[in-house]
Write a structure and sequence with these properties.
This protein is mainly beta.
Length: 210
């Protein structure tokens, strides 16, 4: 796809946490090139700021990697079956979902989401606070699905599960970032990271415009 905002079918630029953000209206998305280096470790973290006044609906995706029909991605940060927020990984035995946040996270304010898998537990954090106690699993993430592309604002397989809402500063790491590790001061100055938020350094980011 071209640069967002230049085509009516692309996401628009909107005011965000770090300047500009991507606004999705339920029929657009950003395609992210595959990065094999992020598929080698058995660990993962996906983070994003998100916002909208009301749930985007059940199963709507903020971030997805790959697609297996209309079943699941290799991993996904999504609104879940309750229209709130969840994170999951897909394994050969099925998908493993974190505890879910409720629809109240879509309250019109910006919030920060972090989904992580450390090789043993699938976790979700919202604004630095863990949701539940995590979901234990020793499964490996199933990569090399029929569809291998990553998307912001969508899952695109045999069905299209598109986001209505805004995203800012999306990042994907090939490691599990520990809550409580803190943020570097520059991150705290930019986005108000609390000490319990995952580390803001490194990662593969879809950055806001300058």
């Amino acid at each position: 796809m071209g640069k967002p905002g230049l085509d009516p079918s692309d996401p628009s630029w909107v005011d965000g946490v770090l300047g500009g953000a991507l606004g999705f209206d339920g029929d657009d998305y950003i395609q992210v090139p595959a990065s094999p280096s992020l598929e080698t470790p058995p660990t993962l973290t996906v983070t994003a700021f998100f916002q909208d006044a009301g749930s985007p609906g059940d199963w709507r995706y903020l971030v997805s990697k790959g697609a297996l029909g209309c079943h699941a991605a290799s991993y996904g940060l999504y609104a879940g079956p309750n229209g709130g927020l969840g994170f999951y990984i897909l394994s050969d035995g099925g998908f493993v979902v974190s505890p879910l946040a409720g629809r109240r996270v879509w309250d019109g304010s910006w919030h920060h989401a972090a989904g992580s898998f450390d090789g043993h537990t699938v976790r979700l954090f919202v604004d630095g606070q863990e949701v539940g106690q995590g979901t234990p699993t020793n499964a490996d993430i199933a990569y090399r699905l029929p569809g291998e592309t990553a998307y912001l604002g969508a899952y695109r397989g045999d069905c299209n599960l598109m986001l209505s809402g805004q995203l800012d500063d999306v990042a994907i790491w090939g490691r599990a970032l520990a809550a409580g590790s803190g943020c570097r001061s520059s991150c705290a100055a930019r986005c108000g990271c609390a000490s319990t938020w995952p580390d803001c350094e490194g990662g593969r980011r879809r950055r806001s415009p300058p």
